[in-house]
């Protein structure tokens, strides 16, 4: 047998990414309230991880070992144990950062968030008033019997107290402890309550601490012996078998109603809870040992995103005004501008208004005949969907593919699909067994000469104006006949389910994407074997597919210099002698979420660049419709090369992954200026646009350097 290549476990790799997010909360170069947001993001990420990935591991544990070992090369029990150890270690790191760094810095800025300590007497009165006037009517105290068939129910990711009680006056003289659980109404009332200012300080308190102060009112006739925070996380994956015929929309709606009642995947409890009480709750809630997760006094700290900043905009990032694109600004019609040349948009550095203009102009342009779009995650108040509704009402043919299996966005996508359908838009829903993850749009327009012309938008990120402000993505506007023509084939496949398609320009998952990427990798590998220059730069969110990892290992062995920029999961292990010593992995976590996928191949000096919606994961390559698209315009290539170069040189927010997936800081010599790729990218693009505007003022020039 040949050598088995090494891989890093997917779940453990993801935890190293989330730990990198946590590290940002401790970086004192980051404004205080942005660091608080990183704590919130870390907490939110971890909740979803338990709802989906840990739920999957727990499902595997239900199978027999013999059956598992035939299918997997890891023991789910071992991985589950390692996950729990990592999560507990990171939890205490989170607590340390919050208590020892964040809270003192808030106090230094005259913002006091009460945290375990006794509030001032004046504030106790305010808290009691707030409790009686706002909170009390929302509370639902439930007593838990020591036995019985009915299992107490806790809502997914909701906050509760577990309370140990004793009757003050027991008629039979016996001391009987009673356990109750109590909901914390943070959803309707908010997690943080503002109190009156004192001595120049602004005060806030967790809503649950107000409830703690008033337990005697909730349980008259009882003495509270102990009150502990608890939380249940439940399996959030929808169980939908869509490989067969049936009403998929109906099935999803039915499953959405059941999502809140999924199997437990994590039971968080305050780590000072007495063992006998924990044992009682474990038994009554029918929990397994692997469900148990010790924590602190406060759960659901993704709510820190809601913590008011009374000094705003101080203690926050300085806004970066959107960079204009003069070539689009100065054209009366965006279609005229696209007819002249391709245009690249780099979000959030460029305004997303150009994408909105693309659709808004199409909606009222009498020359536009047809609009086709794919939606994966739609904004809750989508301006693009509204533009499409306008287009349909103006008599244009509008076809929209809505992916109703986009996890945790199913309900919002269904709502928009129904609204668009009622406006006369032809809605297509999910393909059985596949998700459509491509971010593409095609507009058919009659030119002034009466000829039909296609205008395309292809992106690495969703058609979502909200996330476009915080996700770093690319979008290409083009009238290239080859690209637009092949995009028409993709839409024809979505509409008619035709499988026979050939592509020269686009790489489409399910058809030619993986094969073409393998060709491009092999070309660099063969060049290296001939002692020619060979280099690959790949930027993706996640790298998990072993076929592609093995090819990267083979290319490294041949001498290809490989730079990977991987934000999240990376199952490839870099820096192993004889296997991956020519591979370096960089991870960037900064104010914007790096979401773009970029593939650069040296190609003997005639570089090829593709942008894509697809990561190199099994789900993207084998279970989704994805589109990667080429960049032919040399001016655009210059921009992408510069952005990649800055990211690879990022010594401020970049980290190198070692063979154990530690996030290693990048050292920079005193002679070199530190590079922060997102800020330096913004400044470079801004300066480049200013140069273009100066040149265009004198003559029409296409800048290529």
TrEMBL record:
ATP binds at residues 45, 471, 567, 595. One of its GO terms (cellular component) is polyphosphate kinase complex. It is an enzyme of class 2 (transferase). Mg(2+) binds at residues 377, 407. InterPro entries: PP_kinase, PP_kinase_C_1, PP_kinase_middle, PP_kinase_middle_dom_sf, PPK_C_dom2, PPK_N_dom, PPK_N_dom_sf. Residues 7-113 form the Polyphosphate kinase N-terminal domain. Coiled coil: none annotated. Pfam families: PP_kinase (PF02503), PP_kinase_C (PF13090), PP_kinase_C_1 (PF17941), PP_kinase_N (PF13089). Its cofactor is Mg(2+). Residues 125-307 form the Polyphosphate kinase middle domain. CDD domains: PLDc_EcPPK1_C1_like, PLDc_EcPPK1_C2_like. NCBIfam families: poly_P_kin (TIGR03705), PRK05443.1-1 (NF003917), PRK05443.2-2 (NF003921). Catalyzes the reversible transfer of the terminal phosphate of ATP to form a long-chain polyphosphate (polyP). PANTHER family: POLYPHOSPHATE KINASE (PTHR30218:SF0). Belongs to the polyphosphate kinase 1 (PPK1) family. This is Polyphosphate kinase. It comes from Rhodocytophaga rosea. The gene is ppk1.
């Amino acid at each position: 047998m040949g050598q088995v290549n090494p891989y890093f476990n997917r779940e453990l790799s993801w935890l190293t990414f989330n730990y990198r997010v946590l590290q940002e909360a401790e970086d004192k170069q980051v404004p205080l309230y942005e660091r608080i947001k990183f704590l919130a993001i870390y907490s939110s990420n971890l909740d979803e991880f338990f709802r989906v990935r840990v739920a999957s591991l727990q499902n595997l544990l239900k199978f027999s070992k013999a059956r598992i070992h035939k299918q997997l090369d890891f023991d789910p029990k071992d991985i589950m144990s390692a996950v729990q150890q990592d999560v507990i270690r990171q939890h205490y790191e989170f607590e340390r950062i919050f208590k020892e760094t964040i809270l003192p810095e808030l106090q230094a800025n005259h913002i006091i968030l009460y945290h375990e300590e006794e509030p001032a007497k004046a504030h106790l009165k305010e808290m009691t008033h707030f409790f009686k006037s706002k909170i009390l009517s929302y509370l639902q105290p439930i007593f838990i019997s020591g036995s019985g068939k009915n299992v107490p129910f806790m809502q997914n990711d909701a906050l509760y107290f577990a309370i140990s009680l004793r009757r003050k006056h027991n008629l039979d003289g016996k001391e009987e402890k009673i356990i109750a659980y109590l909901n914390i109404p943070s959803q309707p009332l908010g997690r943080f309550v503002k109190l009156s200012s004192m001595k120049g300080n602004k005060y806030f308190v967790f809503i649950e601490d107000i409830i703690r102060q008033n337990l005697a009112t909730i349980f008259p006739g009882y003495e509270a012996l102990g009150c502990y925070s608890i939380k249940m996380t439940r399996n959030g994956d929808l169980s939908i078998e869509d490989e067969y015929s049936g009403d998929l929309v109906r099935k999803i709606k039915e499953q959405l109603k059941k999502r809140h009642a999924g199997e437990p995947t994590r039971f968080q409890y305050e780590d000072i809870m007495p063992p006998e009480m924990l044992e009682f709750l474990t038994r009554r809630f029918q929990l397994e040992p692997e469900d148990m997760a010790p924590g602190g006094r406060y759960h659901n700290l993704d709510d820190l995103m809601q913590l008011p900043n009374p000094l705003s905009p101080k203690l926050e990032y300085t806004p970066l005004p959107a960079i204009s694109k003069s070539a689009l600004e100065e054209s009366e019609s965006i279609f005229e501008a696209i007819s002249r040349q391709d245009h690249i948009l780099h979000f959030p550095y460029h305004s997303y208004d150009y994408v909105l203009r693309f659709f808004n102009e199409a909606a009222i342009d009498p020359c536009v005949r047809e609009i086709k779009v794919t939606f994966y995650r739609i904004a809750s108040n989508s301006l693009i969907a509204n533009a499409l509704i306008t287009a349909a009402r103006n008599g244009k043919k509008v076809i929209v593919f809505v992916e109703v299996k986009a996890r945790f966005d199913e309900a919002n996508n269904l709502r928009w699909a129904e609204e668009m359908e009622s406006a006369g838009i032809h809605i297509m829903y999910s393909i059985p067994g596949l998700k459509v993850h491509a971010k593409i749009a095609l507009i058919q327009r009659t030119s002034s000469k009466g000829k039909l012309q296609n205008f395309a938008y292809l992106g690495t990120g969703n058609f979502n104006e909200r996330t476009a402000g915080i996700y770093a993505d690319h979008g290409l506007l083009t009238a290239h006949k080859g690209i637009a023509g092949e995009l028409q084939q993709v839409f024809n496949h979505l509409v008619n389910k035709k499988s026979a398609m050939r592509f020269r320009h686009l790489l489409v998952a399910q058809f030619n994407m993986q094969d073409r990427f393998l060709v491009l990798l092999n070309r660099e590998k063969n060049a290296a074997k001939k002692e020619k220059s060979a280099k690959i730069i790949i930027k993706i969110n996640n790298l998990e597919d072993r076929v592609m990892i093995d090819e990267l290992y083979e290319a490294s062995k041949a001498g290809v210099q490989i730079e990977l920029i991987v934000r999240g999961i990376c199952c490839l292990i870099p820096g192993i002698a004889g296997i991956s010593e020519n591979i370096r992995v960089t991870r960037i976590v900064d104010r914007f979420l790096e979401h773009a996928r970029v593939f650069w191949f040296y190609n003997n000096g005639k570089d090829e660049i593709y942008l894509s919606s697809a990561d190199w994961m099994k789900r993207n390559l084998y279970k989704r419709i994805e589109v990667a698209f080429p960049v032919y315009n040399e001016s655009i290539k210059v921009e992408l090369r510069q952005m990649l170069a800055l990211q690879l040189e990022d010594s401020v927010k970049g980290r190198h992954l070692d063979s154990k997936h530690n996030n290693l800081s990048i050292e920079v010599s005193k002679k070199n200026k530190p590079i922060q790729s997102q800020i330096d990218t913004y400044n470079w693009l801004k300066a480049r646009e200013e140069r273009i505007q100066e040149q265009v003022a004198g003559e029409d020039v296409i800048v290529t350097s």
